[in-house]
Amino acid sequence: MSHYKLISNYKHIDAYKNSFIELAKNVFGIDFEEWDQNGAWNNDYICYSFLDNNKIIANASINKMKIVLDGKEYQAIQIGTVMTHPDYRKQGLAAKLIKHILDEYEESFDFIYLFANDTVLDFYPKFGFKRIKENCYFLNLAENQYSNDRKSTIRALKLDEQEDRELLKKLAKERLPISTTCGVVDNEHLLMFYFIVFKEQTFYLEEEDLIVMYEVEGEDLHLYDVISQNRINLDDILSNILTSQIKKVHFHFTPDSIATSFDIQPSLSNDALFVNQSWKDIKRDFVFPLTSHA
Questions:
Q1: Averaged confidence pLDDT in the chain
Q2: Confidence of residue 120 (pLDDT cuts 50, 70, 90)
Q3: 3-state SS track over the chain
């Protein structure tokens, strides 16, 4: 164990960066290469990794961002990409990386949080993390609730076209939070990742100068995010993207308000939210935007 070297902030060192990308592919099936090539790996994403024979064998990353909760802005760290090469597991490497990150950042940020799958629910409470309940939001549509009279031109955005790529970067950098109840800003590095994940579901409303990420599955519409420099009106957004076949809208964020009330249920998401001890409990219902998950 003593010969493993702890390194960080190595995005400019190709050998280490490529080893990290390879480990993420092997452990999670996630490819960071296109994201990196699009210039999205900025100083708000920092890897903390153990190195053995010049190969990354374990990692925990931080994502710096601002969180808006009930209208108040917080400086936050989200931990993500926690992984260990199969040959190096059961040595406590991930635990050492988490502890190192907490020691470095806990005093200088308002809170630290992460999302975990159901295989590690007992791991994070050992470091003082508390599981927080989230909710899911949906809208059951009445017949003819939204007209099909679209007011805006909608076109698909393509990451491989420079003009569209620059538009995505601009709006990601300058966006307002999608919700004042629970929103995220200054996380363009994560948004650029989701532009890749949802490349077939990302559209530009030209007259409104905003990006809407959504997908239709049968009679259900999944609204993932709306990226805009201005405060959004969800009714206007829905009137532009709904068709008469849609019976239900699933919001993958916390809607601030909408003309017709939406339904709330406890979240059954596979991603469990954990927040460290400095968390100030929020008394109202909320869910973190899906496109802010690391």
A1: 91
A2: confident
A3: CCCCEEEECCCCCHHHHHHHHHHHHHHHCCCCHHHHHCCCCCCCEEEEEEEECCEEEEEEEEEEEEEEECCEEEEEEEEEEEEECHHHCCCCHHHHHHHHHHHHHCCCCCEEEEEECCCCCCCHHHHCCEEECCEEEEEECCCCCCCCCCCCCEEECCCCCHHHHHHHHHHHHHCCCCCCCEEEECCHHHHHHHHHHCCCCEEEECCCCEEEEEEEECCEEEEEEEECCCCCCHHHHHHHHCCCCCCEEEECCCCCCCCCCCEEEECCCCCEEEECCCCCCCCCCCCCCHHHCC
Superfamily (CATH H level) for 137-266: Gcn5-related N-acetyltransferase (GNAT) (3.40.630.30)
Whether domain 5-134+268-292 has CATH 3.40.630.30 = yes
